[in-house]
Design brief:
alpha/beta
């Protein structure tokens, strides 16, 4: 077992946030009607992807009936359908859909993670929950030795990486621009010594994709820019 796999096992055993533990387990018991016959994961969700990734995609948190059900980031819901289809178009995913942990999906040069590992009520982790979960993100990024580019899906992911970058350097000298779709900034690496690139994108949530706030061509352009900076 690799050190990243050992870390993933530790993440899945975490019970530090009582509200999140109660909610993720309640959802796993009650289930959605469409998934009544399935056994929900109902635990924290570790990152997924290529251990040698140069590009890290940073979301928000597992969806209650998506990753909280399947146990893999952005898997089993519409947000994941949008994301993996884009990764596949870019040649970074082996297949356009991610439906289960054993579906054969493989990522090339990409790792997907989030600042909150448990499905939160209303998809909104509290500041204290994000602070508690931050240690897992720090350790995970520390295991991704080749990562140089961070594509943040939404403001929460963007702020999480910016905060870690500022913590590794003189805060007064590290001022990434405010979150926006397509924003790009050079930052101190959030997981180790050196520099990195932070790219912002609107989140791939249904709220954004179904309203047209985020379209497939818009996301493809941002993903291509992030991949270019990562040398993919």
């Amino acid at each position: 077992m690799t050190s990243l796999e050992r870390l993933s096992a530790r993440i899945t055993a975490c019970r530090l946030c009582p509200r999140l533990v109660a909610w993720r387990e309640q959802v796993a018991r009650e289930k959605r009607r469409a998934y009544k016959g399935e056994v929900y994961w109902g635990r924290p969700v570790p990152g997924f992807g290529d251990p040698a990734a140069r590009l890290v995609v940073v979301g928000l948190a597992p969806a209650a009936h998506g990753a909280n059900r399947t146990g893999r980031m952005f898997t089993g819901d519409r947000s994941g359908d949008f994301l993996y289809a884009a990764l596949h178009r870019a040649g970074l995913a082996s297949q356009p859909h991610s439906t289960a942990r054993d579906d054969g999906q493989e990522l090339r040069g990409v790792f997907i993670t989030a600042p909150c590992r448990c499905a939160p009520p209303q998809n909104r982790p509290t500041p204290d929950e994000l602070a508690t979960c931050r240690a897992w993100l720090i350790r995970e990024l520390g295991e991704l030795h080749q990562a140089t580019v961070f594509l943040a899906l939404g403001k929460t992911g963007y702020d999480a990486i910016a905060l870690l970058a500022r913590a590794r350097a003189d805060r007064s000298k590290v001022r990434p621009p405010p979150f926006a779709h397509g924003v790009l900034a050079s930052i101190p690496h959030p997981g180790r010594a050196g520099e990195a690139t932070l790219v912002g994108s609107y989140h791939v949530s249904q709220q954004n994709t179904q309203t047209g706030r985020l379209t497939a061509p818009m996301f493809d352009r941002v993903l291509a820019e992030a991949a270019r900076h990562a040398g993919l």
